[in-house]
Amino acid sequence: MKGVMSFGKRGKLSPRYIGPYQIVRRIGGVAYELELPASLGSVHPIFHISMLKKCIGDHSLVVPIDEIKVIDSLSYDEEPVEILDRQVRKLRSKEIVSVKVLWRNQKVEEATWESDHDMKVRYPSLFEPANNELEEKNFPLFVKKLVPEVFVKNFEKNNVSGEMTDFEVEVKEVASASEHTFQLRVTEVLLANDEKTHERLSDTLQLVAEDIDRIWKVSTKIQDKGKQVSEGSLVQDISSSTNNILKVNNNMVGRDDQKERLLEDLTGSYSGEPKVIPIVGMGGIGKTTVAKEVYNHESILRRFDIRAWATVSQQHNIKEVLLSLLQSTIKMDDMVKMSGEAELADMLQKSLKIKRYLIVLDDIWSFEVWDGVTRCFPTEDNAGSRILLTTRNNEVACYAAFSSEALTYEFETVGKQIADECHRLPLTIVVVDGLLKSKRAIEDWQGVAKDVKSFVTNDPDERCSRVLGLSYDHLTSDLKTCLLHFGIFPEDSDIPVKRLVRSWMAEGFLKLENDLEGEAEKCLQELVDRCLVLACKKSLDGTKIRSCKVHDLIYNLCLREVQRENIFIMNDIVLDYSYSECRYLSMQKMQPFKRVTGDKIDYCPYGLYRALLTPVHRQLRDHDNNDLLKQTRSIFSFHLQDSYYYILKSELIHFKLLKVLELRHIEIDNFPVQILSLIWLRYLSLPHRRKKLDIPPEICRLWNLQTFIVQRPQTSIVQRLRTYIVPSVLITFPEEIWGLMQLRHLKLPRFYLPDFPSGSVDKGRHLDFSNLQTISYLYPRCCTKEVIMGIQNVKELGICGYETDLSIRDSGLLNNLVHLQQLETLSIILCFKLLPASAIAFPAMLKKLKLEATALSWSYLDIIAELPNLEVLKLMGGACRGYEWHPNVRGFTRLKFLLISDNSLKYWKATDDNFPVLERLVLKESRNLKEIPIEFAEIYTLQLIELDWCLPELGESAARIQKEQEDIGNNPVNVRISNPYYFDHLEGAGTLAAMRGIYRSPAKLENAPE
Fold first, then answer.
1. pLDDT at 858
2. 182 sits in which H/E element
3. Sheet bearing 21-27, strands edge to edge
4. Where's the NB-ARC domain (predicted)?
5. What Cα–Cα distance (Å) separates residue 996 from each residue in 8, 163, 931, 976?
6. How confident is the model at residue 762 (pLDDT cuts 50, 70, 90)?
7. Strands (DSSP E) along 192-305, which ranges?
């Protein structure tokens, strides 16, 4: 120790030592910074003077360094993320410059003001502008935000002339082409990095600025004209009534967002008639709970003059409902209770007049009860009133929502005229219906009637096409773009929704917000609501669309409007050899073909690639845009044969601005290095058939990448069984993968993700996958705490791999999954003896779990049964071993879907307490099981039992459950059986004749959750 601590003037510390620690500097008037050893690096070095005085005066407070235990979770590295703001304070003799810094692991509101000079010395990379100026998210964000959203959105609200439509097209062209040209120049700067390329970038920015200035001036004139025309005729623009229906998630725990949305609907300003807000969902999922929470919320108490609640139930009684409501509105006595139904209805109506009221009708089952009570709710002088109802029946919810908005005689008259003009064409009727739902003014309905009537033609297809065009014209610009994108797929294609929305995200069709997936789902749902897109498959609860398609007439509409709108161009890429054995790539106008019929295209027999191109705008004065390769922004492959893929691979380097690259049905031995030059790529999908694929470190160049998919080929059952013994492809990522911070979806057969690189901070930014939503399939030994903490926001995770190393098996790596607080879906394949030994080691919010080839004992499922939020459990081939399953705990308290497939289960004993809210039971390839526990008849929520490739006795058991439910008065469970096993010793069994009524032809699972 170098001297003793002493106090100088005014109680200040001498700038020497305190104990073994040197004083570095004084902070303000009451604190000091100490130089701490490396072992205490996670301890903040600044201490208040009072703390230091205590340590000097009382030696018992001194603790040896080796005894100090710092809890990792209570500390974090001091890492600045970004500068949020900057301010300058001017004094007489100098200026003090401060910057507002957001630190790692802190919220925005906890950012701190720091000295600009100190931060530049300590973190110079935080102030480096070079990369930030070139990132796509700066200038293109400016162009997209300024042009399409500010201009186009306003135009859609004030579209009063044909002149507007033409200008909208020009705005879109400028936005698209400006972004295209800018990205081209940035690419040149990054790849060439010479002075000339910087000059060209500057010239491009100047041209784009001139275009935007010109558009602004024209838009101002048009909007002024629109204001003059529309002055005095304000039309309320509200969404379809179906959008007011709150569909409650099956798991209400932690769903504060739904409660907040409900509170907003109840308290938001609304001057019309009392608004009806239905909450729809299955029994027992918490509809009543959330309704009670908002009913007693303090904002509701302040908002409404009267609140009244009535529980309806299935065996409803209108008089009892009226009495329940009157308890909250008037003083009850025997005379009131003895009154008749009509008198009670009159009392209720009078008590609610000229008041802002909230009525809650809980558990309403039928249309009749709604019609019986709604006549009691006054509609005049009751602005801001709300009627909240909970129901299990979606039809009742829709009926309540629409009937509350009664149409006048004028609307009915115009509606009948429109219906007559549709000439009973089903597609025309449903599309016009979807259009009228969004129209609230009689003038809008009359305009639709006039347009439909003008389609004078005897050809039904032609009439229908014109009506579809009318519905298309009423879409917003973003919905139009999303609909037109269906034209890139083959006609009649059943398109997986995940594939569709991820390509929308990559193309930039959606608003630049955090929840891109949610925004995409909203757009798709609105297109479905307008009957322009067909939902082919849905999730178990019916809330999410799994796959979709468009009608052939709408498909033709997409092809026509793509050319007219000039949003993008669709071409076919042709790969071939000439007679001189020279390979070539050419583009031709897209020719539609049907995927389902396998149509051949004569000019590309060796493989079809379809491309989306940015249209050339007449104002850009840039000859480089005439190069079709530079205009191409997306490439999709559809053809089943592809012999000339290497021609395309050699040309990839010329597709400088490519955003989407989806390759299928080909063999790729190694990662194509040509892709590494495609710095704007957001969506990459590659096929691979080999055992190993190494991703090069240069993958970090693809800093815009959002989705990376490696598809494995379709395998037969025999091949799939072999993968249980010898796992499939192993893809190895370098540590540079952590630099791709825009990644949202990683889907690969099996991949190795390394730990963080040695320096986890890159130019002031922490490397992690904070945007990552889905991962599959991660190698088990990658589930270290370091990796898991780097993917904390993931919602879907798949793990696959067989570990021969016994030390790995005993390491408890999968216990680290408990840190994934956002995880809702988990799939585990193989992973013998790696699963957590306790339910508390699983993620708390887990809703869906799939196990496959894990060889667990059936008794292990008692641990799974304790998961508090589990709704879907899939036990695929080889998930469990053994012949008997006897659940020993009252568990699976929220399980709604249970699938057991390809197993050796022979004896199954369970009670209704083991599966209290089960709705759907699916048994596939159960070759030994002959009986479902008869106690399942007492599960009142059970709706469906589905059997596929099972013994006939199992079907008889399901029939007995069905009969038992009928006998006790419940709605009988629906039983479906496909492909029953028949053995010689069972043939001729008399009971089989009775089973014919519930056997059916082979079919896929309907609405099965993924």
1. 95
2. helix 162-192
3. 17-18, 21-27, 31-35, 46-48
4. 256-404
5. 100, 65, 18, 11
6. very low
7. 246-247, 275-280
Cis amide bond preceding 777, omega within 30 = yes
Q: What is the total residue count of the chain?
A: 1010
- Which two tokens mark 237? 């623009």
Tell me the pLDDT band of 1, cut-offs 50, 70 and 90: very low
Whether 241-403 shares its CATH topology with 478-550 is answered: no
Report whether 189 contacts 258 (CB < 8 A): no
Return the bridge partners of 730, or none.
692
Of the segments 196-210, 634-648, 747-761, which one has the largest average pLDDT value? 747-761
Report the distance separating Cα 688 and Cα 669, nearest Å. 7
Which pLDDT tens digit goes with each residue over 394-404?
Answer: 656 665 655 55
| 79-88, 145-154, 417-426: the lowest-pLDDT one | 145-154
126 pLDDT higher than 60: yes
Domain map (residue ranges) of the chain: 9-74, 80-127, 135-230, 241-403, 478-550, 568-670, 688-829, 847-1010
Cα–Cα distances in Å, from 597 out to 30, 312, 491, 593?
81, 53, 10, 8
* Angle between helix 318-326 and helix 341-352 axes, rounded to 10 deg: 30
Termini Cα distance of the chain: 66
Chain segment 307-320, per-residue pLDDT in tens: 998 888 666 678 88
Note the pLDDT tens digit of each residue in 818-846. 999 999 999 999 887 788 889 999 999 99
Structure tokens at 557: 């509409």
- Whether 936 contacts 959, CB under 8 Å: no
Residue corresponding to tokens 């997986």: 496
pLDDT reported for residue 1008: 43
Retrieve residue 450's tokens.
């006039």
Query: Which stretches does DSSP call E strand in 509-631?
Result: 534-538, 545-549, 569-577, 583-589, 609-613
The listed range with the strongest mean pLDDT (110-119, 642-651, 655-664) is 655-664
Q: What is the gyration radius of the CA atoms in the chain, in angstroms?
A: 33
Q: Which fold has domain 478-550?
A: Arc Repressor Mutant, subunit A (1.10.10)
Q: Which fold has domain 847-1010?
A: 3.80.10
| Calpha distance 880→904 (Å, rounded) | 8
DSSP letters along 288-325, please?
HHHHHHHHT-HHHHHH-SEEEEEE--SS--HHHHHHHH
Structure tokens at 883: 């012949």
pLDDT in tens, 787-816: 999 899 999 999 998 766 555 666 778 899
- Which CATH class name applies to 80-127? mainly beta
Residue with tokens 């889905």: 774
Question: CA 897 to CA 922: how far, in whole Å?
Answer: 8
Q: pTM for the full model?
A: 0.63
Structure tokens at 712: 């494995």
Q: What is the pLDDT of residue 529?
A: 79
Domain at 241-403, CATH from 3.40.50.2300, 1.20.210.10, 3.40.50.300, 3.30.300.180 = 3.40.50.300
| Cβ density class 845-875: b for 16+ within 10 Å, e for less | bbbbbbbbbbebebeebbbbbbbebbbbbbb
